[in-house]
TrEMBL record:
<comment type="similarity">
    <text>Belongs to the fructosamine kinase family.</text>
</comment>
<keyword id="KW-0808">Transferase</keyword>
<dbReference type="InterPro" id="IPR011009">
    <property type="entry name" value="Kinase-like_dom_sf"/>
</dbReference>
<dbReference type="GO" id="GO:0005829">
    <property type="term" value="C:cytosol"/>
</dbReference>
<dbReference type="GO" id="GO:0102193">
    <property type="term" value="F:protein-ribulosamine 3-kinase activity"/>
</dbReference>
<keyword id="KW-0547">Nucleotide-binding</keyword>
<dbReference type="GO" id="GO:0005524">
    <property type="term" value="F:ATP binding"/>
</dbReference>
<dbReference type="GO" id="GO:0016301">
    <property type="term" value="F:kinase activity"/>
</dbReference>
<dbReference type="Pfam" id="PF03881">
    <property type="entry name" value="Fructosamin_kin"/>
</dbReference>
<keyword id="KW-0067">ATP-binding</keyword>
<dbReference type="InterPro" id="IPR016477">
    <property type="entry name" value="Fructo-/Ketosamine-3-kinase"/>
</dbReference>
<protein>
    <recommendedName>
        <fullName>protein-ribulosamine 3-kinase</fullName>
        <ecNumber>2.7.1.172</ecNumber>
    </recommendedName>
</protein>
<keyword id="KW-0418">Kinase</keyword>
Length: 312
């Protein structure tokens, strides 16, 4: 790996200064003759697709000029299989303490960015055909220009005009996998009941602007530096802004200051709590498929809550 870094990126010196990683990938930090870098790597055959999606996610988030995220450098195939993702090294403090309120504002700005482009386009029709300075244009549909991975499963991000349809497909993917891998049909039975009144969960919304999402905004993917908040490990797509906070609330680590700050820009809607339960469902199913049936109970309970909300 170090030889590849020198060959492809022209580094003449590499000194390992740290290592780490999470449930999916491993990571190594290096001091180079051009500064510090962080390298994520994974030896699985689908790693290149996963890192390509993350690379594009980072570029999109950077283009909103809303929140700090480590700059991407390059994605490369490993000679022995798999891939690595080279990025800027950012010295982070552990967790989020002083900057929770500011991060809430910044995530709201990121979510509002595409809506603001839409409003600009209405004021000046020529804006639709122009790229703004940060290279993003208004997206009228839900999806992303590449598939991204929440964990190691690919998320199909084909552009779709209807959010409820886009989200239902995400659920269907995981239910289908659970049926295949675990021969468990209890989730399917409950989901089919939810589908009878599924569309009513969105009736209080006049319009859902596609918002650029981090896509995996749990406490393990946020931190702060001496200069302010930082986020990382995105699995982005354009979706409903409320989707972002299902996993944030599931595992904690986000203070009231964060949410109060966010909702000062994007207020809670009438059926926010019901939809939060709906959006938690994806994350519980995704964790079931990644880490096993320990997440079955949470998945079933979430579906039962939805059945109760909908009266089906």
């Amino acid at each position: 790996m170090e030889n590849l870094l020198k060959t492809e990126l022209g580094y003449t010196t590499l000194k390992q200064i740290g290592s780490g990683g999470g449930c999916i990938n491993k990571g190594v930090a290096y001091e180079t003759n051009e500064g510090k870098i962080y390298v994520k790597y994974n030896t699985n055959t689908d790693a290149r697709m996963m890192f390509d999606g993350e690379y594009e996610s980072v570029l999109a988030i950077m283009a909103t000029n809303s929140v700090k995220i480590p700059k991407p450098i390059k994605v490369m195939d490993l000679p022995t299989g798999g891939a690595m993702f080279v990025m800027e090294y950012v010295k982070m403090h552990q967790g989020l303490s002083k900057e929770a309120s500011l991060l809430g504002l910044q995530i709201a700005q990121m979510h509002k960015h595409n809506e603001n482009l839409a409003k600009q386009a209405k004021n000046d029709a020529s804006n639709i055909a122009k790229k703004c300075e940060n290279e993003l244009t208004y997206k009228s549909q839900f999806g992303f220009h590449v598939d991204t991975c929440c964990g190691y499963f690919p998320q199909s991000n084909n552009w779709t005009s209807d959010w409820s349809e886009f989200y239902a497909k995400k659920i269907e993917f995981h239910i289908g996998k659970i049926e295949k891998d675990y021969n468990d049909h209890s989730v399917r039975e409950l989901w089919d009941r939810v589908l009878r009144k599924y569309s009513s969960l969105f009736e209080d919304l006049d319009i859902i602007y596609p918002a650029l999402l981090h896509g995996d905004l749990w406490s393990g993917n946020i931190s702060e530096t001496s200069d302010g908040p930082v986020i990382f490990d995105p699995a982005s797509f354009y979706g409903h802004s409320e989707y972002e906070f299902a996993i944030s609330r599931m595992f904690g680590g986000f203070s009231a200051d964060f949410f109060n700050s966010y909702h000062s820009v994007i207020p809670q809607t009438a059926r926010y709590k019901e939809r939060l339960e709906l959006y938690k469902l994806f994350n519980y199913l995704n964790h079931w498929n990644h880490f096993g049936s320990g997440y079955k109970g949470s998945s079933i309970n979430t579906l039962k809550n939805l059945v109760k909300f909908l009266g089906v």
